[in-house]
Amino acid sequence: MGYQNVPGVERDLNLLRLFHDAGVRVIQIAHNIRNLYGDGCAEPANAGLSSLGLEMVAALNELRIVIDLSHVGDRSGLDAVQASRQPVAVTHANAYAVCPNARNKSDALLDALAANGGVLGVTYLPPLVRMPGQTPTAADVVAHFDHAVRRMGAEHVGIGSDFITGQPPERYQEFMKKPEVYGTWPWRYPVDSLEAQQELLASLETIGLSRAQIEGIARDNFMRLFRTVMG
Questions:
Q1: Do 110 and 29 share a structural domain?
Q2: In what order do the strands lie in the sheet with 66-68?
Q3: What pLDDT digit, counting tens, does each position of 59-92 carry?
């Protein structure tokens, strides 16, 4: 189980152990906006982690819970990677250099993530593949894979589809409050089925990836990270 934001422990980080005991193995430090621990990607100040946020990184390392940076701000992400003694994950985001969405990750963060032993999960969420007003295609998703592989190495890239469908209307309305992150509704996913994903994986040969590298992206790279962190 995982949390897209820190569960309600407030300043008592010892309570994280209760969530670990309940089976939680992934926790994201911030989700779009600022919390007690750091800035999310939609915070214009981009202020990074707080002192409590740095303590949070240490606590998650000790508990062997995977740190997720998918929705954090750029400086928060860099702070977390620098502070973490364990590999860190971006489970679902793309490359800012390819699509300048507020949630996508800078080359500096991709570099730090690779040096840390972490993995970026390339996502199919339309506003993170191409900016609003542009219809994303599978080839656009491949462009994110291509950039990430060239920047980080294939062993640091995975899949983080973020395939959000069948949500209640109020959930989509909540998304639309952050157009710099979620674009405009409705979305059209460029990869929208398991069959389309298999075709996408096969197409990664066109950017020079071997079968072993593609299998790493499809499964092994995140499995390696999870085994390393969880022990």
A1: no
A2: 2-3, 26-28, 66-68, 89-90, 119-122, 157-159
A3: 999 999 999 999 999 999 999 999 999 999 999 9
